[in-house]
Amino acid sequence: MNTQQKLIDIFKKFPTVGSRTAGRFVYHLIKLPKERIDELIGAITELKNKIKLCQLCFNPYELNGSPAPAGLCPICSDPRRNKNLLCIVEKEADLLSLENTKKYNGLYFILGGTVATMKKEDISQLRINELKKRVSQNSFSEVVIALNPTPEGRTTSVLVENTIKEAIPSPAFKITHLARGIPVGGELEYADEETLESALEGRK
Ligand SMILES: [Zn+2]
User: Fold this and answer.
1) What band does 184 get if pLDDT is binned at 50, 70 and 90?
2) How many angstroms does the Cα of residue 161 sit away from the middle of ligand 1?
3) How many angstroms separate the alpha carbon of residue 12 from the centre of ligand 1?
């Protein structure tokens, strides 16, 4: 395979990037001065070496000699967080939106996506096994399913709820969902803080 095609195939796998955009990225790179390419390689290498995924919630965090226990992000290792409360979100950006409201003090679990169908190949893209393990190993009092009110988000909410009930047949915790308020078809990532706050406070 030639070099250009190899890079196009890599970029094509990035979220929201199709073949055409991937091609444009590669032409852009070809025209860049060598120093800029080195800068990019350096930044990617740094990302590879310094950014880790949290073993509990899968939130990316930077290793910078912090006193946090190995393998845990600042949220999971913060003793002030409520360890009995777990919030399941689709992606990192949703976690950030909820954090920005400053109204949530529990822990998180990043599912890694949503599914349009209950097909095996779709489900295998999500951290379902990791989720089972997470809910089984902890004594939560509440698990909040905070997925987007899109068709995929709703399908995935059902899947998540079934998965939890399968892993723990009679859970001691309650399973709640964000209250309505986020526009139907809308996404947590783009919801304003006030909307998100009331969706969080009104969860049931
Ligand atoms: Zn974490």
Assistant:
1) low
2) 21
3) 29
| Helical (H) or strand (E) element with 143 | strand 142-145
CA of 38 to the centre of ligand 1 (A): 32
pLDDT value of residue 199 = 82
Give the Å distance between the CA of 191 and the centre of ligand 1.
23
DSSP string, 165-198: HHHSSS-SSEEEEPPBTBPTT--GGGS-HHHHHH
**Residues 152 and 115 sit within 8 Å (Cβ to Cβ):** yes
Average pLDDT, the chain: 89
* Tens of pLDDT, residues 74-131: 999 999 999 999 999 999 999 999 999 998 999 999 999 988 888 888 888 899 999 9
Instruction: Walk me through the domains of the chain, giving residue ranges and CATH numbers.
Output: 3-53 (1.10.8.420), 81-201 (3.40.1360.10)
Is pTM beyond 0.85? Reply is no
Q: 31: CA distance to ligand 1 center in Å?
A: 40
CB 102 within 8 A of CB 113: no
CA of residue 159 to ligand 1 center, whole Å: 22
Report how many helices (DSSP H) and strands (DSSP E) the chain contains, helices first: 8, 6
DSSP secondary structure string for all residues of 58-108 = --EEE-SS-SSPTT--TTTT-TTS-TTEEEEESSHHHHHHHHHHT---SEE
